[in-house]
C-alpha cells in the first residue's frame, strides 16, 4: 500500500495508535487519548452547563491517563453543585456511573476549580482554591474513622475579620 499501515493496541490498559510507513519504514507509536468533558451546573464550569460535547469544558491530558479541566474565577455562592465527567462527548459513558459527583463551596466568593479524572477510576475529583486576588483563604481536609469508607469534609475559612471558621459536613 502507498499509505501507512495503522492499527490500535492496548498495553497496560492504555490505548495506543501504531502506524507503519512502508516508504520510510518508520514505526510511530502514540497514546490514543480519549475525549473527556465535564458537564454540570454552568456556574461551576466555563458558562456551559449540562453539555457533554462542550469544547469549552473539554479536559486535557499529557499522558492519556490523568485528565484535568481548570475553571478560573468562578463567582459562586456557598452550596453544593453537581457535575459528571463524560467520555467521548456523549451521555453513553459518564463518571461516576449512575449518579452525579458533588462539589462543595464553603462560602460565597470567587474560586479556581480543577477537575481531575484518572482513567479507570470510578469517580472524578476536584480541588478548589480562592482565585488570585480573592480575600478568601481556604483549608479543606477529608477525615474519617480508621478502616471506614465514610469520610467527612472539614473546611476552614478565614474571614475578612481574620477569624477562622469551619464547616463540617457529613456528620
Précis, in short:
The chain is an all-beta fold. 0% of the residues lie in helices and 54% in strands.
The number of E-state strands comes to 14
Specify Rg, calculated over alpha carbons: 20 Å
Element order: H for helix, E for strand:
EEEEEEEEEEEEEE
Strand content: over 45%
Q: What would you call the structural class? A: mainly beta
Largest sheet: 4 strands, antiparallel
Residues in helix, %: under 10%
Q: What are the low-pLDDT stretches, counting only 5+ consecutive residues below 50?
A: none
Round the mean pLDDT to the nearest integer and report it: 80
Distance between the termini: 66 Å
Annotation field: number of helices: 0
Shape: elongated
Detailed description of the structure:
The protein has 171 residues and is mainly beta. It has strands at residues 5-11, 14-21, 26-31, 36-40, 60-61, 66-76, 79-87, 93-95, 101-105, 109-118, 125-130, 137-143, 152-158, 164-169. Strands 4, 7, 8 and 9 form a four-stranded antiparallel sheet that branches. Strands 5-6-10-11 form a four-stranded antiparallel sheet, with no helix packed on it. A three-stranded antiparallel sheet has the order 1-2-3, with no helix packed on it. The protein is elongated. The chain starts with a strand and ends with a strand.
Could you list some keywords that capture this structure?
4-stranded antiparallel β-sheet, elongated, mainly beta, 14 strands, 0% helix, single chain, 171 residues
Amino acid at each position: 500500500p502507498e499509505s501507512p499501515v495503522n492499527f490500535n493496541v492496548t498495553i497496560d490498559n492504555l490505548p495506543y495508535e501504531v502506524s507503519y510507513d512502508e516508504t520510510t519504514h518508520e514505526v510511530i507509536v502514540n497514546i490514543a487519548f480519549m475525549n473527556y468533558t465535564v458537564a454540570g451546573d454552568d456556574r461551576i464550569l466555563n458558562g456551559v452547563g449540562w453539555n457533554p460535547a462542550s469544547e469549552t469544558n473539554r479536559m486535557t491530558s499529557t499522558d492519556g491517563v490523568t485528565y484535568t479541566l481548570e475553571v478560573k474565577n468562578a463567582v459562586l455562592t456557598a452550596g453544593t453543585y453537581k457535575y459528571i465527567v463524560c467520555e467521548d462527548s456523549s451521555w453513553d459513558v459518564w463518571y461516576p456511573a449512575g449518579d452525579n459527583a458533588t462539589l462543595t463551596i464553603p462560602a460565597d466568593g470567587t474560586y479556581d476549580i480543577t477537575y481531575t479524572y484518572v482513567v479507570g477510576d470510578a469517580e472524578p475529583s476536584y480541588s478548589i482554591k480562592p482565585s488570585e486576588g480573592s480575600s478568601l483563604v481556604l483549608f479543606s481536609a477529608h477525615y474519617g474513622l480508621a478502616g471506614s469508607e465514610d469520610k467527612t469534609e472539614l473546611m476552614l475559612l478565614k474571614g475578612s475579620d481574620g477569624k477562622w471558621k469551619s464547616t463540617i459536613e457529613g456528620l
